[in-house]
Design a protein that fits this description.
alpha+beta; Beta-Lactamase; five-stranded antiparallel β-sheet; 7 helices
């Protein structure tokens, strides 16, 4: 399966989704215990979500609600990292934020955490959204079923990156973990985008 940019496919829907962007929900501080239960996305599924510039959820489609395990009211206004799994290294989110805050799209494999502690692997495309004047207004995420080969490769890389972050300590974690990824890319002679789309 070859992944291409899917932001264009969803461009026509952004205007409709913005109609929901003023809806806000409850703020939660939940401690979720991860389990070994995996929920696998269906081939036809697309998880769609939108956030403001601070990462607060302003829209989530029914598939997002289904796989996250939260209600729409719980999701709206919550930080998008509500679905962040502790197996995900911090450096990957730093890479993601650096790209989208630079007005670029980003592709990334992520392991998401549901309210009940189950997890799902997804292949994510995140793009900035803009108003008619060209000002960035938030972020638009579309997640789909990932390639098994990509999950296998990235889960091993993430495991090594996370172990490195834990050893390095808080202040040096992201830099040390990022070096793991950049060394792999250098060895393969590929950019991050080339690598993540090829695996």
């Amino acid at each position: 399966m070859h992944y291409q940019s899917i932001s264009a496919k969803w461009a026509d829907t952004i205007g409709e989704l913005h109609k929901d962007s003023q809806l806000m929900g409850v703020k939660m501080d939940l401690q979720i215990t991860p389990t070994s239960v995996e929920r696998v996305m269906r081939e036809e599924d697309f998880i769609v979500s939108m956030t403001d510039l601070k990462g607060k959820i302003t829209y989530g489609n029914r598939i997002f609600i289904e796989f996250s395990g939260y209600s729409e009211a719980e999701l709206l206004g919550a930080d998008h990292n509500i679905v962040r799994h502790p197996d995900m290294p911090r450096a990957i989110y730093k890479l993601l934020w650096d790209k989208i805050q630079s007005r670029e799209e980003c592709f990334v494999y992520t392991k998401d955490l549901a309210k009940d502690g189950s997890f799902s692997w997804v292949f994510t495309n995140v793009t900035p959204t803009f108003d008619p004047a060209g000002n960035m207004t938030g972020y638009f995420s579309v997640r789909r079923k990932p390639k098994p080969s990509g999950v296998k490769v990235m889960s091993e890389i993430y495991r090594t990156m996370l172990e490195t972050e834990n050893r390095a300590g808080t202040s040096n974690a992201i830099a040390a973990s990022t070096k793991i990824l950049t060394d792999i890319l250098k060895e393969k002679g590929l950019s991050y985008e080339e690598f993540v789309l090829a695996i």
